[in-house]
Specification:
The chain is α+β, with helices and mostly antiparallel strands and 406 residues long. The chain has helices spanning 13-24, 40-48, 70-76, 79-88, 108-120, 177-184, 203-209, 242-248, 267-277, 283-290, 293-303, 323-334, 390-403; strands at residues 2-9, 29-32, 51-54, 62-63, 93-95, 100-103, 124-126, 131-136, 146-150, 153-162, 189-195, 199-201, 216-223, 226-234, 238-240, 258-260, 340-343, 351-356, 374-376, 384-385. α3 (70-76) crosses α13 (390-403), α9 (267-277) runs antiparallel to α12 (323-334) and α10 packs across α11 (293-303). The structure holds flavin-adenine dinucleotide (FAD). Flavin-adenine dinucleotide binds at residues 9-15, 32-35, 40-41, 44-46, 50-51, 131, 163-165, 168-169, 173-175, 177, 350-351, 378-379, 389-392, 395. Residues 9-15, 32-35, 40-41, 44-46, 50-51, 131, 163-165, 168-169, 173-175, 177, 350-351, 378-379, 389-392, 395 line the site of flavin-adenine dinucleotide.
Length: 406
Amino acid sequence: MSQHDVIIIGAGAAGLMCAISAGKRGRNVLVLDHSRKAGNKIMVSGGGRCNFTNYYVEPNRYISQNPHFCKSALSRYTQWDFIAMVDKHGLPYSEKEEGQLFSDQKAKAILDMMLQEVSEVKAQIQLETVVEKIRQLDLSEAPNRFQLITSKGAYQCESLVIATGGLSMPTMGASGFGYQVAEQFGLNLLPRTPALVPFTLQPDEKAFTEPLSGLSTPARLSCNGVSFLGGLLFTHRGLSGPAVLQVSSYWTAGDQLEINLIPELDLEEHLKSLRHSKPKTELRTVINEYLPSRLAKAILEQWLKQPVLEAGEKGISVGDLSNAQINNIANRIQRWIPNLNGTEGYRTAEVTLGGVDTNELSSKTMEAKKVPNLHFIGEVVDVSGHLGGFNFQWAWASGWVAGEVV
Ligand SMILES: Cc1cc2nc3c(=O)[nH]c(=O)nc-3n(C[C@H](O)[C@H](O)[C@H](O)COP(=O)(O)OP(=O)(O)OC[C@H]3O[C@@H](n4cnc5c(N)ncnc54)[C@H](O)[C@@H]3O)c2cc1C
């Protein structure tokens, strides 16, 4: 029976950070993972460049049934701490939109940095190991210790950390294992749903969007009182892009999504004012001014039922539009309610909403209140970030604070 101070299940972002933090305290740490490689999601993150944190980490960038829970960890291991580690390793990075920090090198550079830190503190990582059974030893055997039966033998540890992530992207090693452990020890679980995920559309709506596939345009997307301004990308299956992914975290089946395709303008007011000042302006000229030409053409022909024009032919002028027509045009373009089919689900979702109820955990140590020495960190917990490096920052922060006490 192999004995360790700490066993961490899951060699992803949170598990590796926890290993570094506990290893720095001189703890004997073993990280187990069923995958062939550690940090699969780090490797594919940020389009291959790993958006590893954000300059503007704030609790309001996280979704959780208890919005206060994330505050403690995020304030004790901050984005500046992670940036300091990246700087120490001399890795170049750049800020993209809104404080999002991406590696200038491939995402592997961030993973290699984490693995080097893990090896410097002499924590071990053992891959391709399936944990078959976990048992808390009783007082007569060895008080406050856990026994793990795995495909590679039996282990004992004083502290057990569950860092197995959420359900998103099973091809990257995701499993519901962390939730099963929570259930085994009587911890409450909150319902889980895919988030930061593209939408799929009903066939009638797809007939409009499919020919636009690959086209990206700025838009404001609103759902359940929350709205995001950013890129909307038409795909073969439906709608994606940063603003779509963001708003998907606030959507549940049956909810309406509203899309404003010209967010910088009050189109109704604009058309009415042009009707007086420049009545001969063609409607298609106005629409083309604010939308990519392929999208403008599709809207004019399919939504606004304007005839396909030959070269030299003139379309309807704004001076000929009635108030009702202007109102209808503005509604179609600025209050588009797509006929949604659902989302692409865990296959492509970046994160999982819900998970281990934060009421069951200490926000300072991530330890289960009912089960001493059992900790849950990272995405398995009911804390999910917005797009933009916030999810990794939660993984680093929750992993670090647990590592300080295990
Ligand atoms: C395509 C994609 C791109 C992303 N890009 C970004 C980004 O740029 N910035 C950002 O902040 N966030 C990004 N995210 C989200 C981010 O990757 C996650 O929030 C983060 O990885 C969660 O860390 P974690 O350690 O909790 O879980 P994970 O990183 O998922 O790690 C969990 C680990 O546990 C292992 N595991 C699972 N089940 C078992 C089991 N039964 N036994 C043993 N081991 C197990 C897995 O193999 C894995 O190694 C992205 C996600 C995806 C899918």
